[in-house]
Amino acid sequence: MNYGKEFMKGLIRENPVFVALLGMCPTLAVTTGAFNGIGMGLSTTFVLICSNLVICLLKKAIPQQVKLPCYIVIIATFVTLIQFLLHGFVPALYTSLGAFLELITVNCIILGRAEMFASKNGVVASVLDGAGMGLGFTLALFLMGSIREIFGSGTWFGISIPVLETHTMSLFVMPAGGFFVLGIVIAIVCKLSKKKPPKKLGCSACPNAAVCSAKCEEAE
Amino acid sequence: MQLLTVSPSPHIRSSMSTQKIMGLVILALLPAMISSVIVFGIRALLLIVFCTAVCVLSEFVCQKLMKKETTVQDGSAALTGVLLALNLPATLPLWEAAIGCIFAIAVVKQLFGGLGCNFANPAITGRVFLLLSFAGDMTTWVKPFYYKGLSFGEMLSSNGNNAIDALTSATPLASGDAGLLDLFIGNVGGCIGETSALALLVGGIFLIAMGIISASTPIAYLGSLGVLSLLHTLISGGEMSSVLYTLLSGGVMLGAFFMATDYVTTPITTKGKIIFGIGCGILTFVIREFASMPEGCSFSILLMNLLTPYIDRFTMTKPVGAKVQEKGEN
Description:
The structure holds two protein chains of two kinds.
Chain A: H1 3-8, H2 24-29, H3 34-57, H4 67-89, H5 91-97, H6 99-102, H7 108-118, H8 123-153, E1 155-156, E2 159-160, H9 162-166, H10 175-192
Antiparallel strand pairs in A: 1-2
Helix pairs in contact in A: 3-4, 3-7, 3-8, 4-5, 4-7, 7-8
Chain B: H1 18-40, H2 42-65, H3 76-86, H4 94-110, H5 122-133, H6 135-138, E1 141-142, H7 152-156, H8 162-166, E2 168-169, H9 172-175, H10 180-185, H11 197-209, H12 216-236, H13 241-248, H14 252-259, H15 270-290, H16 297-314
Antiparallel strand pairs in B: 1-2
């Protein structure tokens, strides 16, 4: 198994936000600033790596019928852990992330990686997959947060930018601006990776096709 | 011998072209433009010319970049520019107006495929974009004839002199104290093109008379807003003249005749047009009376734009002689 590939794929090629369009709720909600984006991204990365590791180790022990509740319990454990850590050491970030920190539990990226990857692959690969996906998520949130903070508030990590500071466009920090920035960034990522829109929508067009467990019509 | 052309239907062709329609609509906006220049001075003219130029230029650049056929000569981008300019306050900085124009043309119109493919009216969306982005500048209204006594340079500048700051006034919608006659002829503060109901009515009636727009949308829009406002007045026990005040103030006249009748983003059928107009009227009333914003005209038209495909589907006309499809048959 190519470990480097497992790590790298989450950054750009299978980026959870820009390519797979997973985890939209935190992506749109907490990216009003670059710092929030990084904080949310790294918290999710931590949970993702740990839950991938534990789920991978326990994959034989978890009965097929109750795997989702088991996954959720494992994920929630690590979310509680990171929640206490942030509350204790970075209270400002804890306050600004608010309920979205707890909502990492139901973040579809984490459950998705557990279901699609960690429950089928080896320990090292699962950890690397979690790290890659988490950092891809962090990268996306940081990018979105930076754009929205620079144009919406005229600052970057709280440092004011000379000209933009007095010419802010508050739309960018509004929810509508979040969707707007997300759309533009996805378009740019598609353009840069020279991806053409699929002619026929089917399983082959799905970014998760490689790891998808559902049988699709084309494979038959 | 005369050659006969054999072609499939339609056989009756109109001499009307996109270019002509856009030209006539711009012509119909001329009274509103003139009144805006009279009320707000040379600055209004500057905004109109500037917005039109930026819109046409961004359409040209977009189509060149996307390697599409250049269609700036059809006048639709120019019309968007004029409409957007008429929806801006006189003292808006030009760079902000330019961002609105570029957003309207590049994002709302060209990214969705150009004229005929945009899901919402570019001018309205541009205005809403500006309103949400620059709430302060977009709601700074100067009093009519504020430019009297200013030098030419001061008239052209957006701010920078305290004389203008001292002259700002609330829009008549928020203050509610303008005279009805002033509202009718346009002697009030507000966006440059929306103040004079008279000029907009002249343009609107011209368009209806020329057959460019149908009267159903404006009548449904103004009618439903009037009825709701009448009911509200009856319940709350205010003066009857407030119904007229509602209809004459704000952007309703401009919206009803020039925005809610856009071919691309409003329903095709007459029934659909009436539904669209009533929807706009209800939404405008609700936003004005119960929301935190004084004006809801642009938001109401934008929201109804989004519903247009559904309205069109529900009001689809039956072709002559078509069999009604039974349920379950397919």
